[in-house]
Design brief:
Elements lengths: L3 H18 L7 H4 L5 E3 L3 H4 L1 E3 L1 H14 L4 E10 L2 E9 L6
Antiparallel strand pairs: 1-2, 3-4
Length: 97
Amino acid sequence: MASETILEESKQAVQQIFDVWDGDDEDALDDVMAEDVILHGHPEEVVGTSRGRDAYKDNLRMIRTGFPDLFFEAHQVVAEDDKVMAYCTFGGPTKVN
């Protein structure tokens, strides 16, 4: 079982990722996200899978371009062993050209 300190650090790292989605500097991901992160898009057959932190950042920029006022709110973050789960909502108006 992971120590309370490690669990709290894991939850804080997830919160930092949410903060980046909320508009913070995307370079903050370098401190909390593995270089070989895998992002499984949904639906998988349309969005596909992105591999690597740079691809994750590309995806983030693409979504924030379409949703410049995107907000992200974590209601509950739970950490246990080597997993972190978040119950959250996000949304915002779309940018229409």
